[in-house]
Design a protein that fits this description.
By secondary structure, the chain is mostly helical. It has a domain at about 20-45 and about 300-374. It is about 65% helix and about 5% strand. It contains 13 helices and 6 strands. The strands form 3 sheets. A two-stranded antiparallel sheet has the order 1-6. It is globular.
């Protein structure tokens, strides 16, 4: 999967904290004790609309771009062939890890018998696959084009995506162009089924606007490097964030904010909030020097992809391994949390406890100076 090496010199603490907080919250929203008992803010909006949970994935993409701004200079110094080798290698590794997580644990229970999964029916896309593709496209754009050209391409991506979505379909689950393209390109059995029909929220067409989340994260990083971690930088980021929120709200009137099809208004809305969050962290950590609380999130931020992958592996094993006729997940959730708390709090308590369990693994890795790089 990857090699364990010494972590590179930190870029800036605010980025590490934002990345770590994103991973921690991602684990909480992905692993409730029961999907039947989830507080509303910890659910995705069913279709159009926005909840705080809808900010998690785009923030991860934003952070990828932000971190890219600190490493791109070094990559450019290594030359074209070394750059391409690095980018394509990292893209392939992340994509394959995502595919591995979709297939894991390779077996399933059918009529009380453990049988091998049909690998021809495995979902191809997913969270890590989208991260891989967005990282690859954004890296190539950043490497080969000037800043003004990249921003023009980004605008064309958002406007072009709006045009395609409005011209070739509507904004419903069944009628949108992203659904139509995925079903044309791929077998329905290889697409996500969580919406009741073959529809992949990380499919081909909706990946195009998601690239812009990475690119704008990259430019935010460049701005911070140029202006410094100071009050003026933070207020500029907040101002830009507010402008993007207002623009997204206006665009929402004709192209609704929607995570599953990753609308262009959703891109501007999430980047707007990410800029405000990052600015707040810069003020608290870099300007006011309130740092004692940050280490908890740094632990997640130092091994983000590894801990995220581990979170998926462990929870699937808990659902697969049975003891005394019950799987481990049910034994823990029903036998412990449901006996102590009401259903909603039991489900949240399980999610938080699971996140803390993974934090302890991350803490051990940090103390042992083990950092997994992809």
């Amino acid at each position: 999967m990857a090699n364990a090496n010494s972590i590179p010199k930190p870029r800036y603490l605010s980025l590490d904290v934002l990345r770590g907080a994103t991973v921690a919250f991602m684990i909480i929203v992905n692993t409730p004790g029961s999907w039947s008992y989830v507080y509303a803010p910890l659910k995705h909006a069913p279709w159009h609309g926005f909840t705080v949970t809808d900010l998690v994935f785009p923030t991860f993409l934003f952070v990828v771009g932000n971190a890219m701004s600190f490493g791109m200079g070094k990559l450019k110094e290594q030359g074209n062939s070394a750059f391409l080798k690095k980018v394509f290698s990292r893209t392939l590794k992340i994509f394959l890890i995502g595919l591995f997580l979709n297939m894991f644990p390779f077996v399933k229970w059918v009529d009380d018998v453990l049988v091998m999964k049909d690998f021809t029916e495995i979902r191809i896309w997913g969270v890590l696959q989208r991260i891989a593709v967005c990282y690859c496209i954004a890296s190539l754009l950043v490497y080969y084009f000037r800043s003004k050209t990249i921003l023009l391409i980004s605008a064309a991506m958002l406007l072009g995506y709006w045009g395609v979505m409005s011209w070739f379909g509507d904004y419903t689950l069944e009628g949108n162009a992203a659904t139509k393209l995925d079903n044309f390109l791929m077998n329905a059995k290889n697409l996500y089924k969580g919406y009741g029909i073959p529809f992949d929220p990380e499919g081909v067409l909706s990946t195009i606007p998601a690239v812009v989340n990475v690119i704008l994260g990259y430019f935010a990083g460049l701005f911070i490097q140029k202006k410094g971690n100071n009050k003026s930088t933070a207020f500029n980021l907040i101002g830009t964030g507010v402008i993007l929120l207002l623009a997204a709200s206006a665009w929402n009137l004709v192209f609704p904010i929607n995570k599953p099809i990753w609308t262009s208004s959703y891109v501007l809305y999430t980047v707007g909030w990410d800029l405000i969050l990052l600015a707040a962290l810069i003020l608290i950590i870099e300007v006011w020097h309130i740092k004692k609380w940050t280490y908890f999130f740094e632990v997640f931020g130092k091994n983000p992809l590894f801990i995220y992958a581990l979170s998926g592996i462990f929870v699937k094993l808990m659902h697969t391994i049975y003891i005394g006729g019950e799987n481990i997940h049910k034994l823990i959730f029903d036998g412990f949390f449901m006996n102590l708390l009401n259903p909603l709090n039991a489900s949240l308590g399980f999610a938080i406890s699971y996140m803390l369990f993974l934090w302890l693994i991350g803490l051990y890795m940090d103390k042992k100076k083990i950092y997994v790089k992809v």
